[in-house]
Amino acid sequence: MKPSSPTELTSPVLFLADHAAVESGKLYVNGGCWNRLTFPDFPASVTFSVVAVILVPWRDTSSHEFTVRFEDPDGSPLGAVLSGELTAGTPDDAHAGDPTLVPITAVIDHFTVERPGDYTVVLEVDGERKNDWSFRVLHLVEDDGHGGAFPDPSDPTNLPFG
Q: Which Pfam families match (predicted)?
């Protein structure tokens, strides 16, 4: 996988998972790539992992700052912000022009959603938006006693992604 430009830092991968970890440069993911959560009451709290892969251009050994932040259904920033710094080296066995893959995971503990709607996780590197992932939070209503529960049909946020 190569970036669109040999000098451009990119992020081709960003998603949410129940659990994720990086070990020896590899991603280990359980319950990954979901985009819907349902809760019977609000505010609600959930713990999950953010997973990203950043492609650092060939021979780029400079330091890069990354930020993972969240936006609510109105596009306003939420309080949860993660930040860090990465510096990638070029592996000895890399071919000329090969980018370096940098996998990143972070646990988001007790993330609070105040209401149903479409939320977004945003990855920025060096202040520039590189990727985003949307997820829908639904209000779950109980069935009339015949078993099961289902999203509230009167809630406009329960419509399919447009």
A: DUF6941 (PF22091)
Domain residue extents for the chain = 10-138
> Under CATH, to which class is 10-138 assigned?
mainly beta
Summarised one tens digit per residue, pLDDT across range 93-103 is 989 999 999 99
123-127, long-range: CB < 8 A, 24+ apart: 123/11, 123/14, 123/52, 123/66, 123/67, 123/68, 124/66, 124/67, 124/68, 124/69, 125/9, 125/11, 125/54, 125/64, 125/65, 125/66, 125/67, 126/9, 126/64, 126/65, 126/66, 127/65
pLDDT at 4: 59
Q: Is the distance from CB of 71 to CB of 119 less than 8 angstroms?
A: yes
The model carries a pTM of: 0.84
Q: Which residue has the higher pLDDT, 152 or 19?
A: 19
| Range list of H helices, the chain | none
